[in-house]
Amino acid sequence: MGKNHAALGQVLFAGVLCFALAASPGYAKANREQVADQRPSPEVVVWTYDSFNSEWGPGPEAAKRFLAETGITIKWVSHGDAGELLSRLLLEGNKADGDVILGLDQNLAERALASGLLEAYKPKGADAIIPDLVFDPTYRLIPLDYSYFAIVYDSNRIPQPPQSLEDLTGEAYSKQLILMDPRTSSPGLGFLAWTLDVYPGDWKAYWRRLGPSILTIADGWSSGYGLFTAGEAPMVLSYTTSPGVHLEYEGTERYQAALFAEGHPIQIEAAGLIAGGKNKENAKKFLDFMVSPSFQDIIPLTNWMYPVIEIPLPESFRINPKSEKTRYPATPTDKELTEWAELMTQLAGR
User: Fold this and answer.
1) Measured CA angle at 300 (ends 60, 286), to 5 deg
2) What is the pTM of this model?
3) Which of its termini does the chain have fewer beta carbons within 10 Å around, N or C?
4) CATH code for the structural domain at 147-266+317-348
């Protein structure tokens, strides 16, 4: 009872003191400021793929810099790989709870733009973007980085790498290759587009020849590359910029990107303003930030892609090869994706 009475006395005293303080102009101002401080900070909800917001991806540092520059918090929402990201947007439609979708590429652009779910916005600083990378002149999709698809190999296990898509079908590479599903993965879609471009009339025959070389087809790049680095297979579909990762963080040149005679497809990743987003002005500020040097210089050493504006590159990028021929293959159609899936089922049943 004594403790309860003492507590009650403290509460009553505090109430009198608060009343007296509240009557003073100085306290009223301080109280308003305290209430303001307790309000939720402004935010922007950015949908992206898993690896972008991983602890080693660009997301954490980008959020830190954006908050420091604008006072706006980035709420990252990961939705698997890029293909899954687009599927989620199309499924949720106008009820999507995001403000920005980040990580779609030009192969997914047609479906994204046709949906009507993205709003045009040309960010401040967009004129600094390398012109050849602007694949959507309406700026419903805005370039954020780019690289080139390639087969990355472990030079300790494959001293003589393939030099073409056709080489990949050789008996020496039986069960040596990890690919990604084009229905859920942007690299997987890019690789299918690559084969359609090089073998326009008989791409199915090429995949039949390629079948024995494939160890597995992963759902996304993260899982596929994880299998590669775990030693499950000595070759994996990735990017010409992937070897730099191992040089930068492991000090090794063991992992290399094979240059193919027929050239390499470019991948341009982009972000777009979701038309139904609740934080529209914050989203526009994020897109302004995305094409600025403050964001772009995060990209090389975290997302391991090239920035879309001209800025110096890290020394470790010296190991990343440059193809003399850039390919711009057409996006596979739904029919071709269905045919590919049917073909893979047939090959698996052999």
Assistant:
1) 50
2) 0.81
3) N
4) 3.40.190.10
